[in-house]
Amino acid sequence: MRDELYQQTILEHNRNPRNFKKLPGATHLAEGYNPLCGDHMWVYMKINKQNILEDVAFEGQGCAISKASASMMTTALKGKTIDQARVLFEEFHHLVIGKLKPDQQPNHLGKLAVFSGIWQYPSRVKCASLSWHTMHGAIDKVKSISTE
Ligand code: ZN
To answer: Which residues crowd ion ligand 1, with CB under 5 Å?
Structure first.
């Protein structure tokens, strides 16, 4: 049952978020804010000359969903190219608004597919996608992202 997996994954990443730190020497960073819920975070990336995301980290405060989503995003993006990160951003965005059905359509989401049911809770969609919008902004050198 995907709902159960979703719950467990969120709780686990919320308790033990990965890459939850400042990243010294970050080449790209942005601040993201979701006024609907109060989620507030910074996403840091170290992108090398080959356009590979060598390191990705985040810090801040937010609900369990925003934190778990950011945590999973950092692990999913490490080692990816900017182009691959943009593809994942698009796929994740389509996933959380219910446009992409991971069981039926080809995608690169892997474990991120646990968020597939979240479109049924519109108020939580922004929580799940905040870190992704912030990361996307950081790539494009946009320093501050608000989901409204
Ligand atoms: Zn939230």
So the answer is: 37, 39, 63, 66, 127
Q: 2-143: what CATH class? A: alpha beta
Sheet of strand 144-146: strand arrangement: 53-61, 39-47, 28-34, 144-146
For residues 127 and 34, what is the distance between their CA atoms, to the nearest angstrom? 7
Q: What rounded mean pLDDT belongs to the chain? A: 95
Question: What integer is the mean pLDDT of 53-73?
Answer: 97
Under 8 Å between Cβ of 31 and 144: yes
- Residue 86: is it exposed, middle or buried by C-beta count within 10 angstroms (0-12/13-18/19+)? middle
DSSP 8-class letter at 56: E
Compute, in angstroms, the gap from residue 67 CA to the centroid of ligand 1.
Answer: 8
Ligand 1 center to 135 CA (angstroms)? 16
CA of 40 to the centre of ligand 1 (A): 9
Roughly how many angstroms between the first and final C-alpha of the chain, as a whole number? 33
pTM, entire model: 0.95
Radius of gyration in angstroms for the set of CA atoms belonging to the chain, rounded to a whole number? 14
Which residues, in sequence order, are bridge partners of residue 144?
Answer: 31
Expressed in angstroms and rounded, the spacing between residue 37 Cα and the centre of ligand 1 is: 5
